[in-house]
Amino acid sequence: MARGSKPGEHRGGRKAGTPNKPKGERALVKIDEAEAEARALVAAGDRITALGKDRLAEIDQWAFELAHEFAPKKDAKGKTCWENPGDEARFERFLMGGAHNPR
Predict the structure, then answer these.
(1) Distance between CA 24 and CA 8 in Å, rounded?
(2) Per the confidence metrics, is the pTM higher than 0.70?
(3) Tens-place pLDDT, residues 53-71
(4) Whose CB among 18, 19, 41, 67 lies 3.0–4.6 Å from 46's, allowing a Cys bridge?
């Protein structure tokens, strides 16, 4: 039994009168839209162009500053001590990975 269309028979395909769509045109429109969004974010002050290592350095600096706030202080005799009872726990939490670190 023969398969396929018979001579003169048309199966599937584009309907008559449908125009060809250039493949690259839609891609160029999407690229232009994406570039416009990126320019708007940069102009708004978002750090979209910052590298991951730079962002991690910022987070590390922030965590260090918070840990430094709760670090032990030296008293008049030069002995290291905690100002408040909870400062030691807070200090350890910042140094050891946050509040999600079970002990």
Answers:
(1) 33
(2) no
(3) 888 888 888 888 877 787 8
(4) 41
Distance CA 99, CA 92 (A): 10
Contacts of 95 (CB under 8 A, 6+ apart): 67
Q: 91: which residues sit within 8 A by CB, 6+ positions away?
A: 67, 70, 71, 72, 82
Q: Which two tokens stand for residue 60?
A: 């590390």
